[in-house]
Amino acid sequence: MKDTVVKQKRGAFNLVDAVLLAVAAITIALAVLFLDPFSLGIFRAEEESVTLSYTVCISGVDGVYLNKISEGDTVLDAVTRASLGNVSAAITEQSHQVLRYDERLGGVMQTVPEPYDVWVTVTAEGAFEKGIGYKVAGKRIAVGGEYTLLFPNFAGKGYCTAIREIPQEGL
Q1: Terminal alpha carbon distance of the chain
Q2: What is the pLDDT of residues 111-164, one digit of tens each?
Q3: Is 85:136 a contact under the CB 8 Å cutoff?
């Protein structure tokens, strides 16, 4: 009796190979569409140029440093050293009233003389991108965001408490 050996063709292109190739091509196309990995900006929304005014509250500032932030000072991002605008106002406020216990009087609300809160309002040229928000020098500016800022004579960390667009003149 003779054994029959069935030989398969190797290296031939078949229907399964075509399906796998199509799935791979679709996966790559979707990755480019949704992730835009090369930062080409092909699929990004348009940015609109805006003038912003945003306020950052820097808490716990010692009284010695209260006069170190002045109107007109340039504000820099502590990490990138990029300009985030110019100071348009700096308001100092005594920080807190706290409940302190006094043996004679009991619990009494007292104003703590230091530290202070400094509310810095910054005006900057930025951009607004739908779905992203406001950006200044590539840094996202958002209410609640924490920012470490450098001024010519002071550095401090604070939280953004307000943002508003300043209307463009002549529009």
Answers
A1: 97
A2: 666 678 899 999 999 999 988 899 999 899 999 999 999 999 999 999 999 999
A3: yes
> How far apart are alpha carbons 76 and 139 in whole angstroms?
11
pTM of this prediction? 0.64
pLDDT digits (tens, 9 = 90+) for 43-58: 555 788 999 999 999 9
